[in-house]
Write a structure and sequence with these properties.
single chain, mainly alpha, AA/rel_permease1, transmembrane, about 0% strand, about 290 residues, membrane, 9 helices
Length: about 290
Amino acid sequence: MESSSYLEVASPVPVMASGLNVRRRKIEIEVEEGAARGPTWQFPRSGTSQHVHVPESELADIEHQLDQPRKLLSEWPATAISGNDILGSVLYAAASVVAKAGKLMPVSLLMVAIVLYFFRFIYEEVVTAIPMNGGTYNALLNTTSKRAAAVAACLSILSYVATGVVSATSGVHYLDTQVDIPIVACTIALLFAFALLALVGIAENSRVALVIFLHHIVVLTILVVSCAVHSIKNPHIFRDNMNADFPEVDFAGTMLDGNAFTAVFFGFGAAMLGITGFESSSNYVEEQAPGVFR
């Protein structure tokens, strides 16, 4: 029997002896004329089709670009991008740590260095488990909810923007001590210059970052040697600093008397806010050559 044919049947005759009542129900089935037999996606409605012919020259150029090896960052350029944040933060974080910790500033900075060293292994395992760009956002997106990942992304953006503004402002203030320049205008110009540099691309950006990174190393090396020579020639400065009292600390509008605990505690907090930058390396982990990140 064909699927489109119908068979007329009669309702069973009620058997009065058994005491059963049979009701007749009328069922109407609406049949659409010309309906497709099967899923609708297999029978699309009337539409248009186009045949596109790509020129052979364009195909050859695309294939040539795809055949080119991908440029990945080696160890030095990859280190320079995140290392500039770490080395640059020393120049503006040291002053805030001294204001909180006083003569115990080396202790606070040493504690921060120890914390970051152990955190390195945790961060390494998390990023290498899902080696994709995005850093904390990508890790949370694959392990928690989208909302938690979005919050982490917003906090990361705020951290990077704040670090850039503080670094640019500190650098312009250092330059203002030597040359009289407008602080706000020069800060905006400096940030705009680095924004243009970021738009060029990470490969070109890494070359400039490597030059700045080497400059940071040279400057800090000269600073350490100069401080060591000056301390040897003037030993009384070190003795006076060791005999000085701990600085007072402003805690929620209340000035607390300085002691060893307040110096280490608040100095550690100030150092943690300033000594950052290594976590940014996970944001471009796909651009690094194999074996560079780990």
